[in-house]
Amino acid sequence: MKRFVTPENKKWWTLAAVSVGLFMIMLDNTVVNVALPSIRRSLGMSLEGLEWIVAGYALTFAAFMLIGGKLADFFGRRLIFMVGLTVFTGASLACGLAPNGGFLIGARVVQGLGGAMMNPATLSIITATFPPRERGRAIGIWAGVSAMALAIGPLVGGLLTEHVNWNWIFFVNVPFGIAGLFSIPIFIDESRDESAEQRLDLPGLVASAVGLFSLTYAFIEANNYGWSSTRILGAFAVAAVALVVFVLLERHQRAPMLDLSLFKNRTFSGANGSMLFVGLAMFGTFFYVSLYMQNVLGYSPVQAGASFLPTTVLIILIAPRAGALTDKVGSRWLVGGGMTLLAGMLFYYTQLGAHESFWALLPGLLLGGGGMGLTMTPTTAAAMSAVAVDKAGVGSAVLNSARQVGGSLGIAIMGSIVVGSSSYLVGFHDALRVGSLLCLVGAGVAVTAIRKIEHAHAPQPTPAIEAA
């Protein structure tokens, strides 16, 4: 194997290795969506339980992403990537063996923990491996893999659910995880942040996790207990207090989990704000459009999954090219245009009824594929260009947390609208209208805040990033 890995091409082997791990963890964001009706029948779960299967994974992913980035920068990106892969693979096996809904939700939470350790390491490894002049192309491939996994998840889930069993949407991760644990030491060099004293920010971790969980819980369970119930109002109050405490802790900690000074950079703040809305649009669309196809239009799991293929193809074609274009023209208008397309996709679906053909769905699928392909890569490149290389792990973690928080809140907010409506279709339309408006807000944030950051053509190696 080593004869194929030369000094000239090793960085591309590195990109390939982290992309395989990235594909696994992003696939599990959407692979379950088409399988949800089968899981519901098999395990006897409520709609709120189904929301927790998806939101629990996304929420843990978001809550622990920052600490995952810190661990990657401090202990070594390759090491933390491998630890996360081990946790993720074991949790995937547990998901497939789940005897009931509660066990499955718990295993998904552990899966999210493994993904939170892996994901920041993937982007920080790329940032440390590629020089700035090639980083946009590399991040374009990275983002393309991420978006493709999110988009192809429904088809993979449909095929496995209909022709094998829903358990196999999780079992399929196991052989890839084992293969990754053997191949990663060959293709990836170790790197870490050696520039400053580091320590774990456990108070910050607890405060952020409590805040995000309480907020998501309030939205998902509000229709069960009532929006004015003591339980739900208490959950919102706990979320507000915990998130305020988190900000105060991060402002005064000697080595905070989240360096709030990063947000003084206008481009970094704008990119993260945009990614929050991208996550809301993607997660909400795949979750509720999948249910719409099966519960309203009567599609089979395979038919529902295959319907997302136009979106997948466009993402695969556009995302890498958007990365190359970002290197030339910057991210600002690409992100703004992509977010506008996503808003158009969501609004288009509000016009669909209970007896639509695939051809009626197609324009929305094309708008979504174009919007996601055009948005994800430039947003990622803008955020990562705005942080120093030795802070790549934390910068990556913040960006991915923004997407996962947007996703979990998107499912929760849209779910509260759907469940509280007179019918699924009415709630579906109302939820998508809200999502469309939020995407337009995201487009405005991108155009207002993101700016192109110029890099020197021949940068010197950064002393803080060394092979261990």
How would you describe this protein?
This protein has 468 residues and is an all-alpha fold. It has two domains: 7-183 and 257-449, MFS general substrate transporter like domains (Growth Hormone, Chain: A), CATH 1.20.1250.20; 202-256. Helices cover 78% and strands 0% of the residues. It is built from 17 helices and no strands. The protein has helices at 10-30, 36-43, 47-75, 77-96, 101-129, 132-163, 168-171, 173-187, 202-225, 230-252, 266-296, 301-307, 309-329, 332-349, 358-385, 392-419, 424-449. The longest helix has 32 residues, at 132-163. The protein is globular and about 55 Å long. The two termini are 21 Å apart. Mean pLDDT is 81; it is low at 455-468.
